[in-house]
């Protein structure tokens, strides 16, 4: 872990004794977690370790092609970001090289006159670099498509498909929210599992339009987080987080922190997703919380122009 932190420039080797988790290592790990949109707890758990490994993959360090399991890394995210800026829709920019990314890569190769084999090597990287240097710095096709999909779904009304997920001991909130949403929308599903992968798999299989997660925290503050990386920010997720935060603050919760993160549940879902993390002292009561969450979702889902 120390070697990877040093390679990323967050840990000075001269200050630490290799193999010992000292204060300098703890601080460097927290800095890395902050940069990666992970909880800044200074604990090298599975999520932090996976992120360290993925961060070590720089563009051009390996061939990128479809494998099982899918390749993951910063090199994949850089590829997806460049493709999106050039107008090739590779789906969510998540650093995971799946079929959508390979399809977009093949389209780019074909348009550029390269061998369309879906393999990103040196020649394809050079072509991407030349083309992307001529583009702007807008949100890219992926963000635009997400906004358009939400806008089109909103015009249909109660056809919204929602998944409500619960982590921890807030089933009263998640189940109450599910009941309230079923009064307005036809398809609402609840997932109560500790593994975020199961939440994402269920939401993706359900082809949900939105995922709303509920989680408990020992912190003294409340957060609502959406998916965001250096190359992508979910417009639907951000807007939903802000809408829910506004409703919760209106009923006496005080200030909510709305921020982008790369938590596994936000990364693996293919639709706009938020995770509402409630700290200590969930006040006011559950019914009020449920009403605020429901109102936030309903307000967010009102038809808006894709540019909004």
From TrEMBL:
InterPro entries: Peptidoglycan-bd-like, PGBD-like_sf, PGBDSf. This is Unannotated protein. Residues 1-52, 72-128 form the Peptidoglycan binding-like domain.
């Amino acid at each position: 872990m120390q070697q990877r932190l040093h390679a990323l420039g967050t840990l000075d080797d001269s200050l630490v004794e290799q193999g010992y988790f000292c204060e300098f290592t703890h601080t460097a790990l927290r800095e890395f977690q902050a940069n990666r949109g992970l909880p800044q707890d200074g604990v090298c758990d599975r999520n932090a370790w996976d992120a360290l490994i993925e961060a070590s993959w720089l563009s051009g360090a390996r061939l990128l092609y479809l494998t099982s399991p899918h390749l993951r890394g910063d090199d994949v995210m850089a590829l997806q970001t460049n493709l999106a800026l050039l107008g090739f829709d590779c789906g969510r920019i998540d650093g995971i090289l799946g079929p959508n990314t390979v399809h977009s890569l093949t389209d780019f190769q074909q348009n550029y006159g390269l061998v369309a084999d879906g393999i990103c090597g040196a020649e394809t990287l050079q072509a991407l670099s030349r083309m992307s240097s001529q583009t702007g710095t807008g949100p890219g096709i992926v963000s635009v498509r997400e906004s358009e999909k939400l806008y089109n779904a909103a015009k249909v009304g109660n056809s919204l498909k929602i998944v409500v997920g619960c982590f921890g001991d807030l089933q009263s909130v998640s189940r109450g929210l599910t009941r309230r949403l079923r009064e307005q929308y036809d398809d609402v599903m609840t997932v109560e599992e500790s593994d975020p992968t199961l939440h994402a798999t269920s939401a993706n299989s359900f082809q949900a339009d939105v995922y709303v997660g509920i989680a408990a925290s020992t912190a003294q503050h409340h957060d609502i987080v959406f998916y965001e990386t250096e190359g992508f920010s979910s417009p639907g997720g951000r807007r939903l987080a802000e809408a829910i935060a506004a409703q919760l603050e209106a009923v006496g919760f005080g200030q909510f922190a709305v921020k982008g993160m790369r938590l596994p549940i936000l990364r693996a879902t293919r639709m706009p997703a938020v995770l509402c993390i409630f700290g200590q002292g969930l006040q006011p009561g559950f019914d009020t919380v449920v009403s605020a969450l429901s109102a936030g979702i309903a307000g967010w889902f009102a038809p808006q122009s894709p540019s909004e």
